[in-house]
Amino acid sequence: MAAFFNRGLIECVKQVQVFGVTSSCARTILLPTERMTNVRHHNKHWNPKFKKLRALKVIKVKLPDYREKSEDLTKDQIKSRMKARGVLPPRPWMERPFFISSTGGTFEPYVPPEGDGKRSAITTTGAKQKFELIEKKSKSMMAVRKIRNYEEDFDVTKFAEQAQDIYIQSHEALTAKDKHRLHELVTEKAYPEMMHNVRDKTIHWKFLKSLEPPRVVHARCTDIVTKENIFGQVTVRFHTQQVLAIYDRFGRLMHGSEILAKDVLEYVVFEKHVANEYGVWRLHEKIIPDWMPPKEPAAITYRIDDEPVNEEETVKSEEVAVAINSKQAAGQTAVA
Question: Cα(253)–Cα(251) distance, rounded to whole angstroms?
Fold first, then answer.
């Protein structure tokens, strides 16, 4: 660029000399090349063809008035402004989200046969119980098949052993009063029933052995709210030997014994939210049949005084009480 301007100045000087201009004029025309700059004085684009497109680059935005309060506006003004902005009116949100993690009870509960655990299969009553169990087995097999649609590895024999582990761990958590662990092992229905009246009590529980292997006797499935939201319940029969002793806050024995072991026959319901990918089997309820004998009441303890009571002092206290009562009666008659 500088070379171009230098060449132009040289040609201009040559033309001045040819036409006879004085050298002073030539000196005024010649300028140092270092100070020369190319300056553009017009602001418009050289090509007016894109004038309209350049104008479209700028969008005029109407800014809202942030100092304006909604309380000062009328309903019609608010409605017109929301229409202009394309905003829908707010809807009052009355619904509450909820999550069903367990059912509130046992659907189609298993009815234990009377005398179970005592009747032999050889006797007439035992054979009748076996026949009734086969009749009810068809619905249970259909429920097991539905559970396998969500849990492919579900096996009835293996699940009975898994249920026994859950049963033992939940009772150990109850003994230790570990609430967080108990929430993981039992459902929201079973938790308050297990923790009822446990405060200020000391529980000693021990699982000794299984008299009979645990087995699944009942299975059912149901849907809640929607058909896809399926819950599964499996009833397991436990015939075990356990030790249970409960002490009150003073260390007095209320129920059971730590020395005496008892045979326990239980029907425990386990539940799982099978539609939930992260659902687990948890203890849900214990079935208590109608023919089961009532529980033994808690042993009531009394305080025993070491010192014997003096008979003379008791006779004197009784005489004083009789004298006070006679005086009060005489005063009431005098007033009347």
Answer: 7
- Using alpha carbons only, how large is the chain's radius of gyration in Å? 48
Q: What angle do CA 41, 42, 45 make, to 5 degrees?
A: 145
The pLDDT tens digits of the residues spanning 271-310 come to: 999 999 899 999 999 998 887 888 777 766 666 666 665 5
Query: Do residues 187 and 231 make contact, with C-beta atoms less than 8 angstroms apart?
Result: no
pTM for this entry: 0.61
User: Among residues 204, 214, 210, 211, which one has the least CA distance to residue 172?
Assistant: 204
pLDDT digits 0-9 by tens, 111-143? 888 777 665 556 666 667 676 677 678 888 999
Q: Which residues of 292-316 are buried (b: 16+ CB within 10 A; e: fewer)?
A: eeeeeeeeeeeeeeeeeeeeeeeee
Beta strands in 273-315, from DSSP E residues, in sequence order: 282-287
Closest CA to 289 of 231, 237, 249: 237
Helices (H) and strands (E) in the chain, counts: 9, 4
Q: Which of 87, 55, 46 is nearest to 70 (CA)?
A: 87
**Nearest Cα to 152, choosing from 277, 263, 41?**
277
